[in-house]
């Protein structure tokens, strides 16, 4: 794992977006997994802008969604579906055959997990994952205590996630479970980038980078990835011992 520190949120997002563009140019059939949320929003926006400006051929990429709120419909503005449709899929005119998102309204969520795992296996793994980090150290909906050996699964959401998660919704929304890729997917991905910004993330970044790897703080698994990068701005790096 390597830590990269950028001047500010925009510089961080520019760098992350460029990582996606560079990958697709080198591997047109790349499998890309992105997280939704506040931190990745600018990365997604800049990726779409760069791809259009540079006329990047995206016709062969496969897109994998990291997670989704169980029971939240795709047209809800707080859903991961809605985020990706408006930030990535529609601007870039990706075809439905390229897109793989969890159906969080499915009556058989276990089957949803199995189908996602099969898509990833059939594509011979994920080439690039860009993920965020929650205030409790979760990646996706891999909450504290999750097995590092899990693939896609349904999980009861931590109280912190339930509280913080309301910020994505215009009105109070009933949340309880999430469906998510597992940390085994992260470990097996060819490259993983964890992005974070702002002083509010300084404490969780310190735990991710400097404390012992433990599933009580899931993001600490990043330390074990041989091609993993923690990309943060100066504010999020504020508590790191290694920050000069």
What does this molecule look like?
- There is one protein chain.
- This protein has a single domain, classed as Rossmann fold, CATH 3.40.50.1360.
- The chain starts with a strand and ends in an 11-residue tail after the last strand.
- The strands form two sheets. A seven-stranded parallel β-sheet has the order 1-10-9-6-2-3-5, sandwiched between helices. Strands 4-8-7 form a three-stranded antiparallel β-sheet, covered by helices on one side.
- The radius of gyration is 17 Å and the shape is globular.
- By secondary structure, it is α/β, with parallel strands linked by helices.
- The protein has seven helices and ten strands.
- Helix 1 (9-26) crosses helix 2 (38-53) and helix 2 runs parallel beside helix 3.
- The model has no long low-confidence stretch (mean pLDDT 96).
Tell me briefly what this model is.
The chain has one domain (16-184, 211-218): Rossmann fold (3-Layer(aba) Sandwich). The protein is 34% helix and 17% strand. It is globular and about 45 Å long.
Query: Under the CATH scheme, which class?
Result: Alpha Beta
Number of strands: 10
Enumerate how many helices there are, as a single number.
Answer: 7
CATH topology: Rossmann fold
Biggest sheet architecture:
7 strands, parallel
Estimate the helix proportion, in percent.
25-40%
As a percent range, the share of strand residues is 15-25%
Low-confidence stretches: none
Shape: globular
Class from secondary-structure proportions = alpha/beta
Distance between the termini: 18 Å
The CATH architecture category equals 3-Layer(aba) Sandwich
Q: Which strand order spans the largest sheet, edge to edge or round the barrel?
A: 1-10-9-6-2-3-5
């Amino acid at each position: 794992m390597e830590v990269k520190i950028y001047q500010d949120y925009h510089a961080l997002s520019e760098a992350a977006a460029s990582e996606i563009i560079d990958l697709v140019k080198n591997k047109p059939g790349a499998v890309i997994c992105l997280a939704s949320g506040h931190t990745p929003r600018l990365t997604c926006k800049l990726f779409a802008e760069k791809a259009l400006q540079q006329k990047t051929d995206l016709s062969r990429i496969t897109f994998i969604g990291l997670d989704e709120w169980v029971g939240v419909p795709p047209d809800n503005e707080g859903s991961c579906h809605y985020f990706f449709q408006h930030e990535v899929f529609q601007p870039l005119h990706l075809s439905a055959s390229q897109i793989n998102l969890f159906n969080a309204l499915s009556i058989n969520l276990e089957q949803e997990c199995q189908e996602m795992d099969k898509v990833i296996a059939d594509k011979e793994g994920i080439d690039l994952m860009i993920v965020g980090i929650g205030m409790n150290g979760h990646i996706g909906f891999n909450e504290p205590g999750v097995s590092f050996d899990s693939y896609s699964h349904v999980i009861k959401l931590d109280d912190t996630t339930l509280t913080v998660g309301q910020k994505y919704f215009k009105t109070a929304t009933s949340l309880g479970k999430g469906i998510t890729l597992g940390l085994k997917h992260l470990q097996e991905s060819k490259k993983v980038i964890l992005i974070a910004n702002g002083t509010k993330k300084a404490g969780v970044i310190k735990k991710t980078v400097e404390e012992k790897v433990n599933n009580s703080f899931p993001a600490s698994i990043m330390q074990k990835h041989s091609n993993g990068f923690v990309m943060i701005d100066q504010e999020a790096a504020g508590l790191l011992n290694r920050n000069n």
